[in-house]
Fold:
Amino acid sequence: MYMAPTPPAPADDPATTGSPCTCFQLRKLSRLLSQRYDAALAPAGLNVNQYSILRRADRAPHSVGSLAAELGMDRSTLSRDLKHLVDAGWLRSVACEDARRRRLVVTASGKRRIARAHPLWRTVQAEVEALVGGHGALANLHAQIDAATARVVAPG
Structure:
């Protein structure tokens, strides 16, 4: 008995794409990349989230709120992450002129931790760049992510 061939699956078929959900696809990629960066940064005693927080805090003075906004995190999640960095002595919270506000300062020990981690980050960053197709492809991906982020953040 003759059976007609099975037609190709549609482009949004979960069997061929893993999921038609953009959020799922982005989160999956994010988890996979985070694992790669975490493994690379482990010799410096940091994970990628801690490294990102320290680097951002070291660039300019930040309150918890401004740092959370820059990182795209909510304050309570960031506060939990900051606790480990403060307890490790890599970051401290100091009073501002307005006693109700505090700013985050990277300590000398934190600066040494960043310096130790940075070459490890550069290496894994180059590996990721190669995985996504080279510098041009990575620059294009960053531009698309930045544009999408701006549209998601923009009011209504």
Notes: The chain has a mean pLDDT of 88. The two ends are 58 Å apart (CA to CA).
